[in-house]
Amino acid sequence: MRRVLVVDDSRMQRRILTAQLSRAGYEVVEAGSGEEALAICETMQPDLVLSDWMMPGMSGLDFCRAFRQMRRDSYGYFVLLTSKNEKGEVALGLESGADDFLSKPVSGDELRARLAAGERILRMERELKAKNRLVTATLSELQGLYDSVDRDLQEARKLQQSLVKERHRSFGNAEVSLLLRPSGHVGGDLVGFFPINARRVGVYGIDVSGHGITSALMTARLAGYLSGTSPEQNIALVQTEYGIYDARPPAELAAYLNELVLEEMRTESYFTLIYADIDLITGHVEMVQAGHPHPAVQRADGSIEFLGLGGLPVGLIDGAEYDGFSTVLRPGDRLFMMSDGITEAANPAGDLLGEIGLSRIMDRNRNLRGAAFLEAAVWELSDYTLGEFSDDVSGAFFEFDGAKENVD
């Protein structure tokens, strides 16, 4: 039952209004002045207020202003009773916080109609509050779920980073260094290396399509396929009749991975690949490029060459064929295999870094080695993009110092 506060200095007028409101089903409370009405509002919260404008002491207008300043749990609908009908007076009443007006003498039908309008507003407010409570509760629940997912993703990031167990290794006459920096909690890039035999090493870079959890799960699967700690599980390696391991030709490995992804994984994800089989004695490199950016060779004299034939991504087209290519690293040469998070990094104007921009970074940092070179490259990339990395950034950096008699 709605509660109505009737405020009027005329006892007769209060009785008339109270009788009409009681018959309409309202609970009615009376006050003979604005001051008395304020005191009542301190102890109870009327849903609707009918207040005379002209009263001795505190006027209805002053009471309305004071009423609007009170703390309430819900909205109170305020109707001023007045004989005033000038537009200026009505505007003053609205500015003071009144919702509606009734002219004296009050018509019972008009009173019920105005209060019905107030009821609709209060009902809408009640429904809106209920919806807001539901939204708040839902948002709180979603925040809890988000926090839980965020914690899981932080752990997933640690696990994904652990896929690259070794970020640097020296082979005596050569070094390999790895860079892996996802743009979010987890990413779809993967880099790594594994020994093929005493004189050869396999180095690779992978970029799974998309971002987030699906891509990260696929990188974990691929890391197992190219394991450096379990050669019997590494599909790049094959055991010869003499019981020693050799490696598949790079082009054959790409084709094998392509069929494996399409037949066994049955996923809509695909990935780009760059893979190099490097002879640590001669510096001879056999490679395959499957949709990955062109690898860069920085010669000892500082000149830079971009190699590769392009090629189709892995896991996209059944029966895709891949062509291998080769190069020879001489003492002092460096091979950089990077993801498109580097070459396609954009500055605020939308200009991509590209191979020209990468060449400049490599030239400026040609005297740095290993992790120091990769760190400097990331700093320059961050400077170019103003710190905004929209894609995962990864790279494998191989430095060849020349053949030595004994290779560990």
Mean pLDDT: 88
User: Tell me about the biggest sheet?
Assistant: 6 strands, antiparallel
Give the termini separation: 90 Å
Tally of discrete structural domains: 2
Give the SSE order as H and E letters: EHEHEHEHEHEEEEHEEHEEEEEEHHHE
> What CATH first level of the largest domain would be assigned?
Alpha Beta
Beta-strand segment tally: 18
Physical arrangement of strands within the biggest beta sheet: 6-7-18-17-14-15
Structural class: alpha+beta
What does this structure look like?
The structure is a single chain. Helix content is 38%, strand content 24%. By secondary structure, the chain is of the alpha+beta class. Strand 1, helix 1 and strand 2 form a beta-alpha-beta unit. It is rod-shaped and about 115 Å long. The N and C termini lie far apart (90 Å).
How are the secondary structure elements laid out?
Blueprint: E1 3-7, H1 11-23, E2 27-31, H2 34-43, E3 48-52, H3 60-69, E4 77-82, H4 87-95, E5 100-103, H5 108-162, E6 168-170, E7 174-181, E8 189-195, E9 200-208, H6 213-225, E10 237-239, E11 245-247, H7 250-265, E12 271-279, E13 284-290, E14 296-298, E15 304-306, E16 324-328, E17 334-338, H8 340-343, H9 354-364, H10 370-385, E18 393-400
Parallel strand pairs: 1-2, 1-3, 3-4, 4-5
Antiparallel strand pairs: 6-7, 7-18, 8-9, 9-12, 10-11, 12-13, 13-16, 14-15, 14-17, 17-18
